[in-house]
Amino acid sequence: MADGEHMNVQWRALSDFEWTEKAFHRLTAKKLSYEVSVAGDVISTRVWGPCPRCDGPIDDRQVHTATVIIGPGDRGSETDPTAAPLRIPVDVTCGCGTGHPGAAEGVTGCGVSFRVELTRSDKIGE
After folding, report:
1. Does some domain include residue 5?
2. Which tens digit of pLDDT belongs to each residue from 4-46?
3. C-alpha–C-alpha distance, residues 32 and 81, integer Å
């Protein structure tokens, strides 16, 4: 989309798998960025870049206090936050800051939600 065109995308609450696929393709193409931070037992994530639906700028930051850690069986318990690599599923909703047509008053973003699986490949504490 050209600059400013994301503002014309109609607001719709969408969470179809196609948006997760589009987000995945943007991550692998490095058009959507992420980082995983660990401080003690607290895991936080940030996902930023263009929304896979409206192309508006998103910057999603979350703190995960009850995170399920999914890791290979030979690297430790699936709930052990020191196991590596960490793969963290994160649900993101567009928060591009734009009031899209059809959105309720005060609501920003195009309404799309998607899931990304973020990876931190180094061991915590190293």
Report:
1. no
2. 566 789 999 999 999 999 999 999 999 999 998 888 778 889 9
3. 25
- Domain of 17 in residue numbering reads as 10-120
Alpha helical stretches, state H, 29-105 = none
> For residue 69, what is the DSSP state?
P
**In this structure, is the dihedral angle defined by the CA atoms of residues 99, 100, 101 and 104, taken in order, positive or negative?**
negative
Q: Based on the structure, what is the number of domains in the chain? A: 1
For residue 16 the two structure tokens come to 């179809």
Q: In what order do the strands lie in the sheet with 33-39?
A: 33-39, 42-50, 57-64
Whether 60 is in a domain gets the answer yes
Q: Which ranges constitute the DSSP H helices of the chain?
A: 17-28
Q: Is residue 125 part of a domain?
A: no
pLDDT in tens, 60-115: 999 986 545 555 554 444 455 555 557 889 999 999 999 999 999 999 999 999 99
